[in-house]
Amino acid sequence: MPSSLAFVAKYIGQVHWDARPEELRALGARAAALLQQPEPGAEAADCLRRILLVVAATKRHRKLDDKFVDVLERALCLPKCPPQIQVLCAAILREMSPSDKLTLSCHEIQETKLLSTVGAILLAQGNKKAAALAVGQRVIKVLEGRLPEGQSSRHLLPLLSQVISVFPASLTEDQTNVVNKRMVDWLRYASVQQGVAQPSGGFFSTPRARQPGPVTEVDGSIATDFFTVLSLGQHYTEDQWLNMQAFSMLRKWLLCYGGEGASSPSSDDRSEVDGSVMSMVSATSTSSRLLPPKERLREKAFEYCQRLVEQSNRRALRKPDGDLQKACLIEAVTIMDIICRQDSSYVYRTLSCLKILHGRISRDLAYAWALLPIAQFFLNHSETAAVDSEAVYKHLFTRIPAQLFHSPMLAFEFIQFCRDNLRVFTENFSIFRQSFPNLFKFLAWNSPSLILEFMDLLPALLGPDTAIEMLHLLLDLPCLAAALDVQLRSASASASERAACDPAAKPASCLEAFRHPLYRSSFQYLLRTEAAPGDSPERLAPLRQLLGSVANSPRVVQCAETVPVLLQLFFNTASECADKPLINQLVLVLLERSDQLYELPAFKADVHRVLSSQLLLLCRLHPSLVVELSKELLEFSGTVGNIQNKEDVYTYVVWAIGEYMSVSYDKRCTVEQINRFFEALEAMLFEITQLRPAASGPPSSPRVIAVLMTALTKLASRSQDLIPRVSLFLSKMRAFVQHPATASVYSEQDSEEILTRATELTNLLKMPSVAQFVLTPTAEVAGAESQRDTHAALPAAMKMVSRFMERGAGFVPG
């Protein structure tokens, strides 16, 4: 077991014991005594480890004695303190942050490694702005001068990066010019010879007296240009390490300090380079040397990135080098984009370079990540250069999601790229909306991690031309996740497995079906890369049944759980922008798809709940749709199977019919329409309340019965010839609820609610004019919340009238 893990295993059980204040103080006193010895050793290190574990685990640093904290600070700054002790002291002081016990300062520190350690502790304090100013000034002061022998700037660059992250405005213009000059030297003038191996000590450790060889490219050839992070060697020199560090912080530096702003006219523009690299400086043009430091850094950074793009064209001999190649290419393109945004004169040079690069890597999926910064560059600058970049985006949106949907990190970066450029895409590029079926593959495969991102993306993808198809795809999202799983497994299947498929036989598995001619077109439609509004989603019905065998897959289940949230967002967005014809189409899809869902019981229940609530919303927004879709609603409401399979949706359809099939909402409503709906709903209520000897009980909930009774009463109040029929039906409800078959299924409370509703409706129908006013209020009255009974959508006024009637006549139907 490694020593660190052994230590944790040994002491983790003592955290609570050591966390007691008196024990912690005692441990601190013991460590303080050991640290004040001439050469603190293993025992001191062991004490410090225990204190670090306790402080990190319990945050009881306030229990540490002031004297112990002072000893830690002095030990940290002692030149001869063992490195292990210094690291532990620094770690404890960082864990104490923020703390008012610290007296550390970086003003007098000359040693770069100690400055890096102390600076990191100071930046962890509460007053980060003051700490960043102090640390930043000290770092710049050290960088300005020539470092003593044995000191290295390598320790300062990570600290400087941390300073500008904490407080970007911490450096003045003169201070940034110092760093600009240094970074030019580090990036452009590092040695191209490999470093010399450091002797490890011992009799046989003396290195051979020969010059180190040149660095190589990733393909093994000798580097013929300047050194970059992609130049390889067995050992690296100090300036080569600084080159790599400078590149790693270049993007952050340019974003903070590379923008517009005049350099100080009194500043010295000559780069301060060591004598060892002065011979290379002669190759630099005089015009470049006369540039202000910021512009000169911009120029050298651009050359560096161009060199990386060229190096990315070489074939790496080792996989780690190839991975580094891709990462550096992405960073290089991103930095070139930043430079072009800060100085448009670089745009034309960069465009020609990136066009060639895109043509080369677009066919290689291994470089898919690099296509995002390239596309970002074209988005930012193609208009400036008057370049048509449609082909770049078309390739990006059609190929990448279709083939790399299963890469979680790429999926996140891709969707984040879409979010960052949402306005540009929606306003200028039709390919963005047309590719929504492809983008949804990212969601189907990575749904839990991408749901928030798609909450931002979906409204932008939704339009009059995509709404219907998108609703179908949302309802089929679990089916899409299952199909993507089958597609991946099919791609990795062996040749013998693929050859085993018999086109004449019925496929025995999803994998066989994927390659079967009978299902090929259905899979192709579900896995399409662009919108296909002319195609019919009905073709997916057999596929939903086939893919039911993977319904319990965790990925499919997780995908299904995101659908209700996205459906809610879809309808909220559509209801704000859709016109009446589109709303009518959405309602028809809602009715059609309510019984054509992927076979997951919990998924179907959740979707039915959302569809029901959205049907209510759409009807309230456009009440006339009940008249306009009367044929479809009549067919839906007159089908018994809809009650059994999708009770929520059916209930709200019946409510909408009873509420809005009225001339108060649409002058086109006729008595004939009202009568047809009455007869259909009457037949349905009769069917579900019919007591047959062989029946085990009524199949429907009391809620459905209550809504049907109410809808029939509303319709009868608008066509008063129907009142005797509904009154007769309502009078039979007492016998229905008291029948043994009903009593065995419904609770006493359920039966009472049915009977109470029947009583209220019957009493109301005894005064037809009052019934019409109460059950069919004007639009203004109907809009008032006080007029709604949220359980069955019955106006509250009806109950008041009913109570008045009962007191007057004492009538109870029976």
UniProtKB/TrEMBL annotation:
Signal peptide boundaries: none
A Pfam family reported for this protein in Swiss-Prot or TrEMBL: TPR_AP5Z1_C
Domain AP-5 complex subunit zeta-1 ARM repeats: 324-441
One GO cellular component, as annotated: AP-5 adaptor complex
Limits of the AP-5 complex subunit zeta-1 C-terminal TPR domain: 453-803
Annotated protein name in UniProt: AP-5 complex subunit zeta-1 isoform A
Domain of life: Eukaryota
Native source organism of the sequence: Alligator mississippiensis (American alligator)
Domain AP-5 complex subunit zeta-1 N-terminal TPR: from-to ranges: 18-283
